[in-house]
From TrEMBL:
<keyword id="KW-0560">Oxidoreductase</keyword>
<dbReference type="GO" id="GO:0004022">
    <property type="term" value="F:alcohol dehydrogenase (NAD+) activity"/>
</dbReference>
<feature type="domain" description="Alcohol dehydrogenase iron-type/glycerol dehydrogenase GldA">
    <location>
        <begin position="13"/>
        <end position="161"/>
    </location>
</feature>
<comment type="similarity">
    <text>Belongs to the iron-containing alcohol dehydrogenase family.</text>
</comment>
<feature type="domain" description="Fe-containing alcohol dehydrogenase-like C-terminal">
    <location>
        <begin position="174"/>
        <end position="350"/>
    </location>
</feature>
<protein>
    <submittedName>
        <fullName>Uncharacterized protein</fullName>
    </submittedName>
</protein>
<dbReference type="InterPro" id="IPR039697">
    <property type="entry name" value="Alcohol_dehydrogenase_Fe"/>
</dbReference>
<dbReference type="InterPro" id="IPR056798">
    <property type="entry name" value="ADH_Fe_C"/>
</dbReference>
<dbReference type="InterPro" id="IPR018211">
    <property type="entry name" value="ADH_Fe_CS"/>
</dbReference>
<dbReference type="GO" id="GO:0046872">
    <property type="term" value="F:metal ion binding"/>
</dbReference>
<dbReference type="Pfam" id="PF25137">
    <property type="entry name" value="ADH_Fe_C"/>
</dbReference>
<dbReference type="InterPro" id="IPR001670">
    <property type="entry name" value="ADH_Fe/GldA"/>
</dbReference>
<keyword id="KW-0520">NAD</keyword>
<dbReference type="Pfam" id="PF00465">
    <property type="entry name" value="Fe-ADH"/>
</dbReference>
Length: 369
């Protein structure tokens, strides 16, 4: 029997280089696209690593410009400055190297400079920004993260080389990995999810169950590479399905407190799953099974996420950012109520009270990590 499914669509990069050493394909991209003056939006932390040095070596015979003038959660002011710098050096192509902040900043610089060619090299294992048509940019005056959407934000070329991942701090590997886990789970549970989407999310959940802990706690290179791959495929899928209250709340929580996006997601995941459970019990049990959380001695996925947060050293970062008196719960909830992710949440959100309860429970956990 046919089941009624929502119509779903996806946009993809035109070309993808994948595998260890694929960073050397950057030269091919620059040559094939006839970029004479590439403008690299480069994560300052990556610039100091061997991977950053390798990129500079690859482009040593090209007149390249390196711009690092952005922070985690890039702002409208920063991307405006980036666009000015791009024009000043008369650059003719954009290459983003870094996590979601670098890639989203490059997307907005592209928008402000007539959409020159954009290529992306992700160096974290969790954002998937390299294949998303969305750029999250902070409006510092309104204290709000704005989701800019445009299919032209999807980089034409993506290079997925796990060599770039190996120098990350454990708490940040955990944060980006749990963000990816959340993307996959929210996509799987979404009211707008489809059979095609769930074929992929099921495989991703099995891969995450096997590789999440070794990537975080052992920095296992093979496991990190799997996370990079899952982050990429998950982000390809979910713009068509929407996410859930986890991301609806995580964006304003990050905007108001400065908490890292992946940490905000990790903190919100257990109480959000619990909130949704009565409306997606069967799918949630399937997620528990696919992740094989029983083998991790966890009662369920929420408990497993909670333990990873506690054991990965994320607690110190969360405690620093979320001092109780400085978390404006009502403002965060009001922004979350406007999120485009609410309609896809498995359980209908009846009003601000629902979100406030989830947020309060998440924030209450910060003391026990
Ligand atoms: Fe996310």
């Amino acid at each position: 029997m046919w089941m009624e499914m929502p119509v779903w669509k996806m946009h993809t990069p035109q070309g993808i280089f994948h595998g260890r050493g694929s960073i050397r394909s950057l030269k091919t991209v620059v040559e094939d696209e006839k970029i004479a003056r590439p403008f690299l939006v480069l994560d300052p932390a990556v610039e100091k690593t061997g991977f950053g040095g390798e990129i500079k070596n690859i482009l040593e015979n090209v007149q390249s410009f390196y711009w690092t003038g952005f922070t985690s959660d890039p702002t409208l002011t920063q991307v405006e400055r980036g666009a000015v710098a791009f024009r000043e050096v008369d650059a003719d192509g954009l290459i983003a190297v870094g996590g979601g902040s670098a890639i989203d900043a490059a997307k907005m610089i592209a928008q402000k400079t007539g959409f020159p060619l954009l290529a992306a090299v992700p160096t974290t294992c969790g954002t998937g920004a390299e294949c998303s048509p969305v750029a999250m940019i902070k409006d510092e005056k309104k204290v709000k993260k704005i989701a800019f959407r445009d299919p032209r934000f999807i980089p034409k070329w993506v290079i997925l080389d796990a060599e770039g991942l190996t120098s990350l701090d454990r708490a940040f590997v955990a944060a980006t990995a749990l963000d990816t886990l959340s993307h996959v789970m929210e996509t799987h549970l979404s009211q707008k999810s489809t059979g095609l989407v769930r074929v992929s999310t099921r495989g991703s959940l099995v891969s995450l169950g096997k590789n999440l802990a070794p990537a975080i706690f052992d920095q296992d290179p093979g496991a990190l590479e799997v996370l990079l791959d899952v982050a990429f495929t998950a982000r390809l899928l979910y713009p068509g399905t929407g996410l859930s209250i986890i991301h609806a709340l995580a964006h304003p929580l990050g905007a108001y407190t400065g908490l890292h996006h992946g940490m905000a997601v990790a903190l919100l995941t257990p109480p959000s799953l619990e909130f949704n459970l009565p409306f997606c019990g069967e799918l949630m049990r399937e997620i528990d099974d696919l992740l094989n959380v029983k083998s991790q001695q966890a009662k369920g996925t929420g408990a497993w996420v909670h333990r990873i947060v506690a054991e990965s050293g994320m607690g110190t970062h969360i405690e620093q950012k979320l001092k109780k008196e400085e978390v404006p719960l009502d403002k965060i909830v009001n922004q979350a109520m406007e999120s485009s992710n609410l309609p896809s949440n498995p359980r209908p959100v009846c009003g601000p009270k629902d979100l406030r309860e989830v947020l309060e429970r998440a924030c209450a956990c910060r003391h026990i990590f």
